[in-house]
Write a structure and sequence with these properties.
disordered N terminus, 5 helices, 326 residues, 31% helix, 9-stranded antiparallel β-sheet, 15 strands, alpha+beta, 25% strand, single chain, globular
Length: 326
């Protein structure tokens, strides 16, 4: 009987050992799950950190990773056209059959205006005509070091000077021809006609249905700090919303990206990607004026950017005549 009594404790001892082995075994199974939880937390935190970094990088200019260049400054393009779906902006305006946009898009060409013509326009309308002349021509009446963006409307004679506009035709009176010659106006008319024909061909409409409209103007932009709302030229906008008369917009560049200025590229802001035009003297970009072509101009970082905006309408009631010396 004594051995049997001793066997009971042995059995108990064996059971305790088994329990300890089970406990130990349980710990061995729980340890990997704890490690997994730690790795999962680390992975989630890492993912959030990566996302935050991407968002911050994008806010600081990471958009360049989704920017496509529609026209490089080193290219000489006989013509490049990209068709895009038309917006509904035109539905709220009177439509003119054979002219109002049914086909929408944007185009670039380097062959309808020569670089020499562009330089002549810039020299005659944006620079001092000659030593001893009555005054500086055109845009130079707005001091370059004081104003970030200046515009000159050759049709009305309006020149922006800070928050105000000066009428050059009234300012100079009968001496205006000492500032702008008949040759200057004729060059402008020739350029306007060439651009009008290019737009008509690209969109499959008759040039005779297009009318010059206002505002049509010369612009000069530099890196001076913005002082007025007018100086904030880089704001994204839609021409048809800003100027109801616009149906087709064009720009003639008078200076070269990275040679005459840095920044200042023209940016079409499409869903999923931006598409840029790098200015070069003589390059013409044109597009339908609705929200299918939301756009902006990058801030100019150095140098001076010159361009001419020439707009066309299908509505004859919004037409303006070519400028002429008065």
């Amino acid at each position: 009987m004594a051995p049997q009594r001793r066997s009971a404790p042995k059995a108990a001892d064996g059971s305790g050992a088994t329990d300890r082995r089970r406990a130990s075994s349980g710990k061995s199974f729980r340890a990997p799950r704890a490690v997994q939880r730690k790795w999962l937390r680390a992975a989630v935190l890492g993912a959030w950190a990566s996302l935050a970094g991407l968002l911050l990088w994008g806010s600081l200019g990471g958009d360049d990773s989704i920017t496509e260049v529609l026209a490089h400054r080193g290219e000489v393009l006989p013509g490049r056209f990209v068709e895009v779906p038309c917006s509904k902006d035109y539905n709220s305006h009177r439509r003119f059959e054979g002219c109002s946009p049914r086909k929408c898009g944007r185009g670039v060409t380097d062959t309808i205006i020569t670089r020499d013509e562009a330089r002549r326009i810039r020299r005659n309308l944006g620079s001092t005509r000659a030593p001893g002349s009555v005054s500086q021509a055109g845009l130079t009446l707005a001091p370059l070091h004081l104003f970030q963006a200046s515009i000159l409307d050759l049709h009305s004679g309006a020149l922006s000077v800070g928050k105000h506009f000066v009428n050059l035709y009234r300012y100079f009176g009968d001496k205006i021809q000492t500032v702008f010659s008949e040759e200057d106006f004729q060059l402008y008319r020739d350029v306007r006609q060439k651009v009008q024909l290019a737009i008509a061909r690209a969109f499959g409409i008759s040039a005779s249905t297009l009318y010059l409209t206002k505002p049509t103007f010369f612009s000069r932009i530099n890196s001076t700090e913005a002082r007025t709302a007018h100086d904030e030229y880089w704001r994204a906008h839609v021409d048809k919303v800003t100027y109801g008369s616009f149906d087709y917009t064009s720009l003639l560049y008078l200076s070269d990206y990275l040679d005459d200025f840095g920044g200042g590229r023209f940016v079409f802001m499409d869903e999923g990607a931006n598409r840029t035009v790098e200015p070069r003297a003589g390059r013409v970009s044109f597009f339908t004026s609705g929200s299918e072509n939301l756009h902006q101009v990058e801030k100019v970082h150095w140098g001076t950017r010159y361009a001419v905006t020439i707009a066309f309408t299908c509505n004859p009631h919004h037409a303006i005549a070519d400028p002429a010396p008065t």
